[in-house]
Amino acid sequence: MKFCSTCGQPVALLIPAGDHLPRHVCAACGTVHYQNPKVIVGCVPEWEDGRVLMCKRSIEPRLGLWTFPAGFLEMGETSGEGAARETLEESGAVVEIGELFAVINVPYVSQLFMLHRGRMTSAHHHATPESSETVLMREDEIPWDEIAFPTIYHGLKWFFEDRRLGVKDFHYLDLKFRHKIPGIREAAQESS
Ligand SMILES: [Zn+2]
Hints:
Elements: E1 11-14, E2 23-26, E3 32-33, E4 38-46, E5 52-57, E6 66-67, E7 70-72, H1 79-91, E8 95-106, E9 111-120, E10 131-137, H2 150-165, E11 171-174
Parallel strand pairs: 4-9, 8-11
Antiparallel strand pairs: 1-2, 2-3, 4-7, 5-6, 5-10, 8-9
Bound molecules: zinc ion.
């Protein structure tokens, strides 16, 4: 940040009195501009035959790799509303949002992932500006070595594990560094 979004004057990076971290502070109007982590919401859309809806990314980052629908939570949304909106935007599918089943911290990119189960209300889905392909996949059809992000990889693994065991567990993970996951293509490991 270079300029104050309140008054348009330049900002300086400094630790305000009583604070403990550097913030962008406007000398002209005194506004302190706090920056906080982004929340990413997603859902694993499940069709009634057990297949889940996967999207091939047609945008960077991770163009050409696979994900289930997920994206940045918007102002005023709940995690479930955001996950349903992202699903519609990325795949054209309508879902009933189910339980929150995973929270994953990715502090090295200041992101928090909240993942829901989701039930597709019809088998309808289609490619979108964000997804070059949308495909209903059985577990054994998931392209595990072409998953876009470690968060998505973990989310899918938990989803299928729970379903196999007939449980609806909640999962929590801190990704503390850009670690390697066997099976994920090198390019997919650089960010969340
Ligand atoms: Zn200002």
